[in-house]
Design a protein that fits this description.
Elements (H helix, E strand, L loop, with lengths): L6 E3 L4 H9 L1 H10 L2 E3 L5 H11 L4 H14 L6 H5 L3 H5 L5 H15 L13 H9 L6 H10 L12 H11 L6 H7 L7 H13 L12
């Protein structure tokens, strides 16, 4: 696996410039946060296993269980190692029965090349979603996280994501998080919805969302 180059987002970036002209609230957030840099995950398999573990759990609880799995795999979460574990061993880290079967299912799909992760690079967003969600235990949320954080797709709106919606409510001072409403309000971000989402995630992570949003202050 090669390491991806670091991607830097700042006011010189065309996507950021575009978002700032389209959405004055988001522009204020971008000004407050300043430059952000990130690297796409380069291990798609480990990312999927992590997301399956984290489903329905807090980030903290997910991280604890995932680190226990790392220990079981000698710090190398790969299909071969996971395939060598018994269901009982995977369950022993504190994960639900259903997730044990999802983890095993994804692992099998990768090993028998039913799912070739490197091929996903060449598919459209919708094709990636279709391919990933055909596996048990992978829903729209996980597929979209994969598009944003592994494949670095630029125009994914994660309306299924709790953290994103938390920031969205703060930014627009609304409690309406119905899919239609969010999609309508965020339509102006296209074709850079993922970049906007990254700033909203950062706003949450840095504690910005703890205080009321003021546009002119």
């Amino acid at each position: 696996m090669h390491d991806h180059d670091e991607i830097v987002l700042n006011k010189d970036n065309p996507a950021v410039k575009y978002l700032c002209t389209k959405d004055k609230r988001l522009s204020k957030v971008i000004d407050t946060i300043g430059e952000i840099s990130y690297q796409p995950h380069d291990d798609g398999y480990a990312f999927l296993i992590h997301e399956i573990i984290e489903q329905m759990l807090s980030v903290k609880a997910g991280a604890v269980i995932y680190s226990r799995l790392q220990v079981l795999c000698d710090n190398n979460i790969c299909p071969e190692k996971i395939a060598g574990l018994t269901d009982k061993q995977i369950k022993s880290i504190g994960t639900a029965n259903s997730k044990v079967s999802y983890i095993k299912g994804v692992t099998e799909a990768v090993l028998n090349e039913n799912l070739v992760l490197s091929d996903l690079q060449n598919l459209s967003d919708n094709e990636v979603i279709k391919k990933l969600t055909s596996l048990r235990g992978i829903g729209l949320w996980t597929a979209k996280m994969y598009l944003i954080f592994v494949l670095n797709r630029q125009n994914v709106l994660p309306v299924e994501d709790v953290a994103f919606l938390q920031s969205y409510k703060w930014l627009y001072k609304t409690d309406d998080t119905s899919k239609d409403s969010v999609m309508k309000k965020c339509k102006k971000w296209s074709p850079y919805s993922s970049i906007a989402a990254r700033y909203l995630y950062r706003a949450l992570d840095t504690g910005l969302t703890k205080n009321e949003f003021h546009l002119y202050k």
